[in-house]
Amino acid sequence: MVHFKNRYMVMEVFIDAGRGECDPVILTQFNITKVIKDSIQLSFGECGLAASLGSLQVKYVNPVTKVCIIRVSRECHQKVWTAITMVRCIGKIPVSFNLLDVIGHARQLHWSAMKQSLSNTSWLPVTVSLRRSSRLYRPALTKLEA
């Protein structure tokens, strides 16, 4: 049995809603996949697009924290990364992608996404007391730092 070697790219999307239209774009798997495919075709042509389409998949999108996880084959991950860097807008809204982590196994993916979610806690309600929040997050943070 053949084991497929994939890379998971954890990316953050920065949306510049002030420079675009009045309505900000809602991040969905379809929007991000379409933009990536268009950028690959523009940068590498139809042959590059066909080579990367077999494994290209947006696995997770969080519209609140603007974090997405993209799965791609090990052979094509640098090509896809380059194409994602060239993306400048989704629809008519200017965006930019920031690569946070490149991971080889899905087991490590869970910890990386959790670490990113814990570092982006500015959207959490402020009503949680410090003692309670530190007690809740301390076990997770010690496992992540180890």
Please describe what this structure looks like.
The protein has a five-stranded antiparallel sheet. Strand 4 (89-90) and strand 5 (93-103) form a beta hairpin. The chain has helices at residues 29-53, 77-85, 106-119, 130-145, and strands at 6-15, 57-62, 67-73, 89-90, 93-103. The model is unreliable at 123-134 (pLDDT under 50). The protein has a domain at 6-104: Alpha-Beta Plaits, CATH 3.30.70.3250. It is built from four helices and five strands. It has 146 residues and is of the alpha+beta class. It is flat. 44% of the residues lie in helices and 25% in strands. The relative contact order is 0.21.
List the helices and strands and how they pair.
Elements: E1 6-15, H1 29-53, E2 57-62, E3 67-73, H2 77-85, E4 89-90, E5 93-103, H3 106-119, H4 130-145
Antiparallel strand pairs: 1-3, 1-5, 2-3, 4-5
Family: Belongs to the eukaryotic/archaeal RNase P protein component 2 family.
Keywords: tRNA processing
GO cellular component, one term: endoribonuclease complex
